Amino acid sequence: MIRVALADDHPVVRAGLASLVETMPDVAVVAQHGSAEDLLAWLEDHSCDLVLLDLQFGEGRLNGAEATRRISAASGPSVLILTTYATDAAILAALDAGARGYLLKDAPTEELERAIRAAAAGQPALSAAVQQRLVRRVLDPATTLTPRETEVLRLAADGLSNDEIAASLYLSRATVKTHLAHAYAKLGAASRTAAIATARERGLFS
Asked: How far is CA 172 from the centre of its chain?
């Protein structure tokens, strides 16, 4: 029997997900929580085989990636992220934190069941869309912004001038311009505005 604990801040979604999981053979929902904090508190005194975890829980609340990091650090159960967020930043943050799998909420029931069984067994469980994103990053690293390029472009998106970005990051103005030029090229953008728009579309600022 695979014992599953759920954490999602939307009551209707949480209840529907619990009902769906309960229909799967040899899978039981042993706990439901509306926040990552409640889940972590429950795990201090209880155990399960898998945590099915949303990624975002609202402003000011602990997010799924950080909760996953804490669960992994405590040698807790496997974590399967189930979310609507499909950006590279969100996926990488969750996997880097120790999640065994990453699935989108529009996944078919059969795919969810396979992912639950795989993640509970300690195996990777990634949706096809997530796999495609990861493969793209590996095969075409030239289109992936470096952390510094992302940081500079994010500040530009916040409305800072090149001089203000340079002062904020303790860089020279020429270095800032170089980072921006590299970002424009990687994003296939001809201008600052276009680069920022493309970065937002790809979820690079998430």
From this structure: 33
CATH 1.10.10.10 is right for the domain spanning 141-201: yes
Q: How far apart are CA 37 and CA 54, in angstroms?
A: 12
pLDDT tens figures, 110-169: 999 999 999 999 999 998 888 877 776 666 655 678 889 999 999 999 999 999 999 999
Decide if 52 contacts 5 (C-beta within 8 A).
Answer: yes
Of the chain, the percentage scoring pLDDT greater than 90 comes to: 68
HSE-CB for 83 with a 13 A CA cutoff: 22
CATH 3.90.280.10 for the 2-138 domain, yes or no: no
Q: Is 161 helix (H, G, I), strand (E, B) or coil?
A: coil
